[in-house]
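User: Can you help me understand a structure? I only have the sequence.
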Amino acid sequence: MTLERQQIPVLGVHATPLRVQELVAELTRFIAEGGTHTVLGHNLHSVTLTLSDDGFRSLYDNSDIVLLDGAPVLWLWGRTGKAEGPVMDYRLGSTDWLPALHQVHGLERIAVIGAGAEANAGAVSRLQQIVPGARVSGFPGEGWGPALEEDAVAWLHREQPQLVLFGLGMPLQEEVLQRRLAGMPPAVYCAVGGAIEQLAGVQKLAPRWLGRMGLEWAWRLLLHPRRVAYRVLGEPWVLLWLLAGRKLGRTRPGK
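Assistant: Let's start by predicting it. Here is the structure, written out as tokens:
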């Protein structure tokens, strides 16, 4: 079964909008079927990369699930009128659905890749609480490079997880999936960004009321100005330029 892909107005990308319980049902199906599956999320950063990088676009086009992560992407999709109930229920950042993993039937082996050793261990411990009885193992991602990447792939083959949480940050985690997915063991691979540090309590989550107002960017800018300043203040202009270029390309004579 393939989920319906829905176009996000203006942005020219597609997603598979789901709520938490719908995602839980899909993860349960993936675990039962076996094989390799991917779960990604769209925010303005991923949209910019999708429009500017063919490899990134291919990864998203071939992903089993592309969640609505960023508030602007969610709001634009909401204009389609396809939401059943509150539109905000379809905004699924990683920390919105990870606490529901205990509801995924048959989930017994989880791997956590990314963050520093302390944060990785903290996330492993938290997931053991969320999914009692599951075997949760971790592989820190600090200092990621070709040698560590080789070690991580070999580690995955030894662990044989059913669900892999890739938290290397965007776009590194997506680049690794582009390079390595075909050679990694069958599992559900989820790109979760900074959720590993958030699960471990190393990175403080924005209050949920800010998230529902679409103001998480302000919280991140306040706490981590050097890390997110370009993404918050500069990258939207890059996205507008890319969108304008696509629009002009389609409207030129002969196009």
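Now, to help you interpret it: The two ends are 35 Å apart (CA to CA). The longest strand covers residues 37-42. Let me know which part you'd like to focus on.
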